[in-house]
């Protein structure tokens, strides 16, 4: 009988890392037909080995592949689900004063999870992680509905769509587990939108009911993670947008805190708390389980300047008024490159940020 995973990494990371110039150049060469897909993958392998070694050197216990094989944190995974297609849309996703490239996705057939290429991506990470934990990040199932277009002929009943989505993810989670994964993170921006009054008004203008979305996303997530193996750690990162150091949504977690912290059956949350847009720690009062890990994203990934150590420690103490210190951890507020363009800081500043997380965590949780 397996025991429930209780490992808490006091110093953790969201997952994506700045793409190296070697990776960027190789992608351009591949697009120009100058190198083969196999040559690109060999270059990615080498660069991933380098950044995994670097993560170990800065003191992280859980290592990622930096999402080095992806252009996007979500689309690359979602469009490789059975029944989903990617395409170039007329416009991108609008951030504060910036817009992404025009990638989009649509559901054109019944959903399933079969022969997903990221299983091989995980297996490579698992092989080189050594005695460290190989952490893999994928978009939350909510993101397919939130960012995708669903063909009403394929799914005239939206509840059938959500049911198939949950089944596909459940199958995918088992596939990653069978490949050796014991630490899986679901990344999600939809819940942050549901914290924002401005974004909820925009949803209503599109005839989308925020309360309905809260219910359906919660149900779908719980179905997807149900009956997972006891030694598989599943967490969620709630993101307010991360593209070239810009953002989309604002608002504290209060509107979604009770359903998320009280009723979502996962092992932990990565929460952005690096600025005033994130609100206070009061919503953490809805954490009603002693085994739920709350990872405080108090250190920003959007610029290279290090926050005052005393301020970070003070805020951890403040959060511990709502959740016991034993359930808390520290990380950057987001990844460093949710898209291949990356945030506006240097690679060395990125490593300094992660080293800083480790140093502060070692000081707080002695």
UniProtKB/TrEMBL annotation:
Record-given protein name: Cobalamin-independent methionine synthase MetE C-terminal/archaeal domain-containing protein
Pfam families attached to this UniProt entry: Meth_synt_2
SUPFAM superfamilies: UROD/MetE-like
Domain (Cobalamin-independent methionine synthase MetE C-terminal/archaeal) ranges: 13-362
InterPro entries assigned to the protein according to its UniProt record, in alphabetical order: Met_Synth_C/arc, UROD/MetE-like_sf
Domain of life: Bacteria
PANTHER family: METHIONINE SYNTHASE
Gene: yxjG_1
């Amino acid at each position: 009988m397996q025991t429930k995973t209780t490992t808490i990494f006091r110093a953790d990371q969201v997952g994506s890392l700045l793409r190296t110039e070697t990776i960027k150049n190789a992608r351009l060469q591949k697009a120009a037909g100058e190198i083969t897909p196999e040559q690109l993958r060999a270059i990615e392998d080498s660069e991933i080995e380098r950044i995994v070694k670097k993560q170990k050197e800065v003191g992280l216990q859980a290592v990622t592949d930096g999402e080095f094989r992806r252009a996007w944190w979500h689309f690359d995974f979602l469009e490789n689900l059975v029944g989903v297609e990617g395409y170039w849309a007329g416009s991108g996703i609008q951030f504060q004063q910036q817009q992404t490239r025009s990638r989009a996705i649509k559901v054109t057939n019944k959903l399933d999870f079969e022969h997903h290429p990221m299983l091989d991506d995980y297996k490579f990470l698992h092989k080189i992680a050594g005695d460290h934990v190989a952490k893999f990040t994928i978009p939350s199932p909510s993101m397919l509905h939130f960012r995708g277009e669903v063909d009403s002929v394929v799914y005239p009943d939206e509840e059938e769509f959500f049911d198939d989505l949950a089944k596909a993810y459940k199958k995918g989670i088992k596939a990653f587990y069978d490949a050796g994964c014991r630490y899986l993170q679901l990344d999600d921006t939809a819940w942050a939108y549901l914290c924002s009054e401005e974004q909820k008004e925009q949803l209503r203008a599109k005839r989308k009911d925020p309360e309905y979305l809260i219910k359906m996303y919660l149900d779908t997530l719980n179905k997807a993670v149900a009956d997972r193996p006891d030694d598989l750690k599943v967490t969620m990162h709630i993101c307010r947008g991360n593209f070239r150091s810009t953002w989309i949504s604002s608002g504290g977690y209060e509107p979604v805190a009770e359903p998320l912290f009280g009723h979502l059956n996962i092992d932990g949350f990565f929460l952005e708390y690096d600025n005033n847009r994130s609100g206070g720690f009061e919503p953490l009062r809805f954490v009603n389980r002693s085994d739920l890990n709350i990872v405080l994203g108090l250190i920003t990934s959007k610029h290279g300047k290090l926050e005052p150590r005393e301020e970070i420690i003070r805020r951890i103490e403040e959060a511990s008024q709502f959740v016991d210190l034993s359930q808390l951890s520290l990380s950057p507020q987001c990844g460093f490159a949710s898209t291949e363009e990356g945030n506006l800081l240097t690679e060395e500043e990125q490593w300094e940020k992660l080293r800083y997380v480790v140093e502060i965590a070692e000081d707080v949780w002695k």
